Amino acid sequence: MTKPRLALFIGILCISIFPVIVRMNLTSGLISAFYRMAIVTAILLPYSVYTKKLQLPDLKNLLPVIACGILFASDIAVWNVSIQHSSATQATLLTNLSPIWVGVFSFLFLSYRPRKSFWLGTLIALLGMIVFVGVETILDLKLDFAFFLGILSGVLYAVYILVSKTVLQKLPVVTFITYSMLFSTVFLFFINVFFHESFSGFSDAAWLSLVVQGIVCQLIAWLLISYATQNMRATRVSLSLLSQAIFATILAAVFLHEKISGIQMVGSVIILAGIATTFYEKQNAPLQ
Fold first, then answer.
1. What is the DSSP letter of 288?
2. End-to-end alpha carbon distance in the chain
3. Is the pLDDT of residue 202 over 70?
4. How many angstroms separate the CA atoms of 86 and 141, rounded?
5. Is residue 132 assigned to a domain?
6. Which domain holds residue 152?
7. DSSP characters over 138-197
8. Is residue 280 in a domain?
9. Does residue 182 sit within a domain?
10. Residue 105 scores a pLDDT above 90
11. Structurally, how many domains does the chain consist of?
């Protein structure tokens, strides 16, 4: 396994903890999103200044970085609210439609044309996702506020992957993540102020959950995923992120004592088969 693929795997495992924490409902979705970004910024900003990695991008590169910060912050906030207004299963399913959006946007707006293996892998993985969450869940989807939040989260996620892929070709990972998270934090601060969210008064368990979200689900996870994005196709990265549903289910079984059904096991195998399909190609292919 190459370094970018290993980084992607560990990164996905780290972000898979996030849905488990959100289900605990220890804080509101919006305030959770803010502290997830703020904790990362508080750690990375001094480090980047000390190591002189906080090089200021020129305006041409700074604007996409700001856009990435706002896109990522919006995605996390929308997804959190979507979970708390529906179910983690529905929100995860709709958000994980992002590989389709990545493929469509790449085809429409970028010079990159996704390979046939990507579309085949996406089809297989989405069929696996349907099996994983259950046909009943699909049939019970309601075109309500939470449904559209889930769809919006997937679109925001896809646009973030594509924009960050472009920016990471020009900036080091640490520099990109530091600036991106800084703008995410500022953006989410004003969003929480606008919605009159409280920034304090949480339980010890809630504070612990916020620290875990910041350090594990954000700092470690997205340093690794950004490194993978820098060295792999955006389509592959986006489709691989579907596997977080599998890891999240396993972690929920361990920490929340939720049972893993046989149908979820079957769906997991199909999802992984779809992801593996996108990695199958001739040995002399240019990107990993």
1. -
2. 10
3. yes
4. 10
5. no
6. 3-109+141-232
7. HHT---SHHHHHHHHHHHHHHHHHHHHHHHTTTS-HHHHHHHHHHHHHHHHHHHHHHTT-
8. no
9. yes
10. no
11. 1
Helices (H), the chain: 3-15, 17-23, 29-50, 59-85, 88-95, 98-109, 116-133, 135-139, 145-167, 173-194, 204-212, 221-231, 234-240, 244-255, 262-278
Confidence bin at 142 (pLDDT 50/70/90): low
* Whether the predicted pLDDT of 274 surpasses 80: yes
Identity (one letter) of the amino acid at 49? V
pLDDT greater than 60 at residue 283: no
Which amino acid is it at 104? V
Confirm if 250 and 260 have CB atoms less than 8 A apart.
yes
| Backbone angles phi and psi of 274, in degrees to 5 | -65, -45
- Residue 214 DSSP one-character state: I
Residue 93: pLDDT band (50, 70, 90) is low
Q: Is the pLDDT of residue 120 over 70?
A: yes
pTM equals 0.77
Judge contact between 214 and 39, C-beta under 8 A: yes
Looking at residue 272, its amino acid is L
- Residue closest to 40 by CA, chosen among 4, 67, 9, 15: 15
- Say how far apart CA 176 and CA 65 lie, in whole Å: 7
The band of 284, judged by pLDDT with boundaries at 50, 70 and 90, is very low
CA distance 188 to 29: 11
The length of the chain is 288
Q: 35 CB contacts (<8 Å, ≥6 apart)? A: 27, 210, 213, 214
Q: Residue 115 is encoded by which pair of tokens? A: 């390979």
Q: Is the CB of residue 12 less than 8 Å from the CB of residue 244?
A: yes
Would residue 19 count as lying in a domain? yes
Query: pLDDT tens digits for 176-200?
Result: 889 999 999 999 999 999 989 999 9
Q: If you average pLDDT over every residue of the chain, what do you get?
A: 82
